[in-house]
Write a structure and sequence with these properties.
Number of domains: 4
Helix content: 25-40%
Distance between the termini: 48 Å
CATH class of the largest domain: Mainly Beta
CATH topology of the largest domain: Immunoglobulin-like
Largest sheet: 6 strands, mixed
Number of strands: 20
Shape: globular
CATH architecture of the largest domain: Sandwich
CATH superfamily of the largest domain: tricorn interacting facor f3 domain
Oligomer: single chain
Number of helices: 18
Radius of gyration: 25 Å
Strand order of the largest sheet: 4-7-2-1-10-12
Length: about 625
């Protein structure tokens, strides 16, 4: 492995030719990203943007909550390069008709179904500028989560939300579904009169009389950031630029929980430049949402599991807000470059948290992240794909969701913290600010970023950093910065006291944050007696906790130590919460014993229908679940 400083000309030459092969012209675009750039090959899309590419979408659809179907017309402005066709991505869609801008029919074919769905190939005369596709979604569209009233918080109206990342938008819109293809959009969405629709755009704050909602996203975004939610929603402002959408019984609690949103937004701008998306709002979804949050532009989609009642889990909002720069503004060109979205975002999130809550708070976040990363690295090392611990991935022939691990998030952030430590915070902040400004509304490959890093940070400051070890090496390099927090040191002192015989109720836990409780529960002895488990539960009422992070960490200990008293509550939790972060470790832990395997089977049989397809796919694989029936060995 070569050090950049030792042989800068050789490494820079290699990076130049790698970028040139992708058609990238380093640093040639203007500050607004308006100069067109050739796009990288995306192995997870059928689109061929070098032949014809979409530049704007007009979506006119109706949402049928009873039939669980979205249908209408997707109209595109396109740039045609005279190759005679345009190729879009679909997955489970029914294509009813395709016409040009004048309404003349165009010949089209749907290819074979694969992991990527089915390519929609449309023959277009030279110079075609517009395309109209009439279609409707299938009942099992992977991006769509249709909820019965009983699956919502208020239990009065049905609910719908979409999840597009990574390659699921193609299951409800025929589109060029690649993160390297950006376009603006407008949408008209018709929903039942008693419901409200919101999208990843500037949103209405009041209901319409006829259930018709119109949206406009003036900034170019990739397809995975198109999002829609429909439900009995209401809006409450937090300040002049931020606010919250949620079900009626949730919205006031959410607005209180997210009271710092405006402060977070101003802090982010102070760090790395202006927020370029107009408003920043959050919608709190029903608990089946598979992620903590999704950074849909203008409107973060968030899990209700962050409503802890004490504002202790709002670092998630800081994370999704940071995506407005790292991810939404400068986007990974392919899913092999995912770390460029998430590594920058975790680093940025930590800086926001440090500015608002102080270094100790940020240190706790970093330590928890490092714990998650180390656990993930062990799992990857023992998996079929040990190479997945690299930052730069090769996911050809695989679901890009396979690469969405803590490696991209925490190893990526650790690399950036190493660079900050080497050059100093003022110079590193200037580098990051320039990066966001220079490449705004563009897509970024790993090669292109490394060339920029070499030219604008490493060489000017004569830094010695083994970049290849970080980006293309497996595992965590030995020079990774070690997160520190004195507050966790104090937690570990209390664990030692308890292990040595101090009753749980006598421990010094007053004023602990959620992060301290998580650290406490994660570092308890692996094997505990029933008496010890009862002592902890009696002192801290852990089984009855309303904090999802604390509850999930406690349930892991309960499974490991066969604490039956908590299993009824865990069953209830897993039947209502669909966040994959909680599902994966709990179901995985249950498989460690025969009793646990039976418990996992029983719970999943009833809970599976409440989960989004993203979570179902993951847990099906963990449990070897086939056709809604448990495998024979259960």
């Amino acid at each position: 492995m070569l050090l950049f400083r030792v042989v800068p000309l050789l490494v820079a030459s290699c990076l130049f030719f790698s970028c040139a092969n992708e058609g990238i012209r380093e640093d040639k675009s203007d500050q607004n990203g308006t100069t067109e750039q050739p796009r990288s090959m995306d192995h997870h899309s059928h689109a061929r943007p070098d032949e014809a590419v979409i530049t704007h979408m007009d979506l006119n659809v109706a949402v049928d909550m009873e039939a669980r179907r979205i249908g209408g017309t997707a109209s595109y402005r396109i740039k045609d390069n005279g190759k005679g066709r345009i190729v879009l991505d679909t997955d489970g869609l029914q294509i009813d008709a395709v016409t040009d801008g004048n309404g003349a029919p165009l010949e089209f074919t749907l290819g074979d179904s694969t992991l990527l769905g089915r390519p929609l190939e449309v023959k277009i005369p030279a110079g075609t500028k517009a395309l109209n596709i009439q279609y409707h979604s299938g009942r099992n569209a992977k991006a769509l989560q249709w909820l019965e009233p009983q699956q919502t918080t208020d239990k009065k109206h049905p609910f719908l939300f979409t999840q597009g990342q990574a390659i699921l938008t193609r299951s409800w819109i025929p589109i060029q579904d690649s993160p390297g293809i950006r376009f603006t959009y407008e949408a008209t969405v018709k929903v039942p009169n008693d419901l409200m629709a919101v999208m990843s755009a500037i949103n209405p704050q009041q209901r319409t009389a006829d259930g018709t909602y119109r949206f406009r996203q003036e900034q170019p975004i990739p397809a995975y950031l198109i999002a829609l939610a429909v439900g009995d929603l209401v809006f409450l402002p937090v300040d002049e630029r931020t606010g919250v959408y949620a079900e009626r019984s949730v919205v006031e609690k959410a607005a209180w929980e997210f009271a710092d949103m405006g402060t977070m937004l101003r802090t982010a701008e102070d760090l790395y430049g202006p927020y370029r998306w107009g408003r920043y709002d959050v919608i709190v979804l029903p608990p089946s949402f598979p992620f903590g949050g999704m950074e849909n532009p203008c409107l973060t989609f968030a899990t209700p599991t962050i409503l802890a009642g004490d504002r202790s889990l709002t670092a998630l909002v800081a994370h999704e807000l940071a995506h407005s720069w790292s991810g939404n503004l400068v986007t990974n060109a392919t899913w092999n470059d995912f770390w460029l979205n998430e590594g920058f975002t975790v680093y940025f999130e930590s800086r926001i948290s440090e500015a608002i809550h102080g270094p100790d708070y940020a240190g706790m976040l970093q330590q928890l992240g490092r714990q998650d990363l180390l656990g993930t690295l062990v799992q990857i090392a023992n998996s079929k794909h040990p190479e997945d611990s690299k930052l730069r991935l090769d996911l050809r022939g695989r679901d890009p969701d396979d690469g969405m691990t803590e490696v991209a998030y925490e190893k990526g952030a650790a690399f950036l913290r190493l660079l900050e430590a080497q050059v100093g915070r003022p110079k590193f902040d200037a580098f990051i600010r320039d990066y966001f400004d220079r490449f705004a509304f563009q897509s970024m490959t790993t090669d292109r970023f490394l060339a920029h890093l070499q030219t604008h940070l490493l060489e000017p400051n004569q830094l010695q950093v083994n970049v290849a070890e970080w980006v293309d090496g497996t595992g965590l390099p030995a020079n990774a910065p070690t997160p520190e927090s004195d507050r966790f040191n104090k937690v570990e002192m209390e664990i030692r006291r308890w292990v040595e015989g101090t009753p749980a109720k006598a421990l010094a836990t007053s004023g602990w944050s959620t992060f301290e409780w998580m650290h406490f529960l994660r570092h308890l002895p692996k094997e505990m007696t029933e008496k010890q488990m009862n002592d902890l539960d009696a002192a801290f009422t852990l089984t009855k906790s309303g904090n999802a992070e604390v509850l999930a960490a406690w349930f892991e200990q309960c499974i490991r130590n066969d604490h039956d008293a908590a299993f009824t509550r865990m069953d209830e939790f897993l039947n209502t919460v669909g966040r994959r972060k909680f599902l994966v470790p709990l179901y995985t832990q249950m498989l460690e014993s025969e009793k646990g395997r039976v418990l996992a089977q029983t719970i999943y049989k009833s809970a599976r229908k409440n989960y989004h397809s993203v979570s179902v796919q993951t847990i099906d694989e963990i449990l070897a679940w086939k056709d809604d029936k448990p495998p024979v060995n259960f």
